Amino acid sequence: MEKVLILGLSKSGIAAAKFAVKNGYEVYLTESKSEVNEIEVQKLRSLGISVEYGKHSDEFIEGASFAVTSPGIPPKSEIFKRLKEKNIEIISEVEFAYRNSDTPFIAITGTNGKTTTTALVSHILSKNFKAPYCGNIGVPPTSLIEDEDIDFLVCEISSYQAQMTEDFKPFISCWTNFTPDHIDWHDGLENYFNAKAKIFLGKQRPEYAILNASDENLAKFAKKCKNVVMFDKLVDTSSQPSPQGEGAASSCGIKDDAIWYGDEEIIKLEDCPLVGHHNYQNIMCGIICAKLCEMENEDIRKQIMSFKAPEHRLEKVREINGITFYNDSKATNPEASIVAINSFNNVNVALILGGRDKNTDLTEMCQSINKHIKTVLLIGEATERFEENLLKNGFSNIIKEGSMEEAIDKAISLNPDVILLSPACASFDMFKSYEHRGDVFKEYVLSK
Questions:
Q1: C-alpha–C-alpha distance, residues 11 and 142, integer Å
Q2: C-alpha dihedral (377, 381, 387, 392), degrees to nearest 10
Q3: Residues 319-373: pLDDT tens digits?
Q4: Could you say which DSSP state residue 266 is in?
Q5: How many C-beta neighbours within 10 Å does residue 93 have?
Q6: Which tens digits make up the pLDDT trace of 52-105?
Q7: Residue closest to 429 by CA, chosen among 391, 386, 370
Q8: Residue 30 CA from chain centroid, whole number
Q9: Given 336, 392, 425, 431, which is the most exposed site by the fewest CB atoms within 10 A?
């Protein structure tokens, strides 16, 4: 019986362990943390899975054919070093699922926007196909691959997961954008880029690559890929080959206040349920995926119109007395907040900003704030550095508050058109997670 080592008592680790033991593997799950869910541990042991926690013992490692890692374990960790010394292959749970499934994958990656895009692609395709979302969005693909009725697995892929793949070859790979993030984890920006690039090149090259034409890094990278469809730029396809053959589009973009796929108008901007140009880009990705899966334009349009944004991603919460509240708590870095900030033009916006600082450069965000924001309300550990950078960049309409609730109350008293929570920071100074932070914002707003 082949022995598999599962690293981490995470959602993906648990799913991989259950799939593996059901399919005849000898399964050992090892978790470094001492505090675990004992009920979950007992459930796994009752299935015949060996579980240890508080350590990674030699007994569990020895003899493993390969290891399936949780995405939160960095490559520089001690357990990775030990496994490499023993020549034990380390793969992601996504890779493990792919190796045990014949279902085509549609892979969505990017620094920002990949969760919304993944959910949107799944929603659009659901009109004609069984195409559940999975991966980094919170549903392990190993929990789905035994369903033979699934047509496509729409899989959000983080850089962590992509780096730990070797054979993963999607039907479609989509890269929404690229900005600096997770640099420490990957030990440099180049390594971060290369991790995501893996699922577009070499033996992992997809049937189709969808890339952002307005992202300088990705426009350049497109030259290394095959069967490329670019979005956010319409090009004349009459004199160049198309990825789908004679007469098909090779680009998707905006023209005449509508989103077009080649020479076909798909949806008016006014009919799109998501706010901001970045969301129009997400919609373009969804349109291209649907067209590559041969869906009809009207079906695509109707599915887009019925889509609701995932929680905490520029999520419209409510309107009160002419003020519209948006929860963008998922914006845990300045680049993500810039996307939200740039979504508002010619309106009075009060921005709630701050949390646990990631110490990234704030210049570009401050420039966007100067163009689009009337008032900034600062909360959390990052307050002093954010204030210093805003003042240095010429923005002085700053209010400092001690809590989320105080910031909301103060923002309401200013009577803006929009109150936007887009923190540009991690949440762990005041909240358990970005979800918790967003929930606190929504609950307080909804109590008004």
A1: 11
A2: -150
A3: 999 999 999 999 999 988 998 999 898 899 999 999 999 888 999 999 999 999 9
A4: E
A5: 31
A6: 999 999 999 999 999 999 887 888 889 999 999 999 999 999 999 999 999 999
A7: 386
A8: 27
A9: 392
